[in-house]
Amino acid sequence: MAEGRDAERIASLSGELGYPADVSAVRERLNRLERSERDCVFVADSADRGAIGWIHVAEQDLVESDTRCEILGLVVDRVARRRGAGRSLIAAAEQGARGRGLRAITVRSNVTRQGAHPFYEHVGFVRTKTQHVFRKPLAGEQGV
């Protein structure tokens, strides 16, 4: 499980995902997510580098289908990829989902993340659809 002490590395890794993040904001988000009964953030640690990857999963209730686990974010440090950290993070997410009685885990991956798609397929995910994502900032909000 991620802890406040992981905030600096998680923020740095978020930048590798293309989402630069302020350490204090990440620490605040981790504190909030830690209190959530539906969210979980796991980290993969390296003895010499600390957190080398993280995964954020959440239990999702849907009207049209059974409750499922969804991966909301996953990243492994560029220099640590292809060494099992990603598989370990997926395994932790799957174990947590099974422990909650969930029968499926999903992930959405941007079409531009060509390197991620074979990874997901290699660990057992099946591509089920392609979609567009739309975002609308609410009044007074910027760049949400």
Your description of this structure?
This protein is α+β, with helices and mostly antiparallel strands and 144 residues long. The chain has one domain (4-122): Gcn5-related N-acetyltransferase (GNAT) (Aminopeptidase, 3-Layer(aba) Sandwich). The chain is built from four helices and four strands. A four-stranded mixed beta sheet has the order 1-2-3-4, sandwiched between helices. Strand 3, helix 3 (85-99) and strand 4 form a beta-alpha-beta unit. The longest helix has 15 residues, at 85-99.
Descriptors:
144 residues; alpha+beta; Aminopeptidase; 4 strands; 22% strand; globular
Q: What is the element string, with H for helices and E for strands?
A: HHEEEHEH
Question: Which of globular, elongated, flat, extended, rod-shaped describes the shape?
Answer: globular
Query: What separation lies between the terminal Cα atoms?
Result: 26 Å
Please give the domain count.
1
Helical segment tally? 4
Helix content: 25-40%
Query: How would you classify the helix and strand content by structural class?
Result: alpha+beta
What's the CATH class label?
A: Alpha Beta
Secondary structure tally: strands? 4
Radius of gyration: 15 Å
CATH superfamily: Gcn5-related N-acetyltransferase (GNAT)
Main sheet makeup: 4 strands, mixed
Q: Which stretches of 5+ consecutive residues score pLDDT under 50? A: none
Q: In what range is the share of β-strand residues?
A: 15-25%
CATH topology value: Aminopeptidase
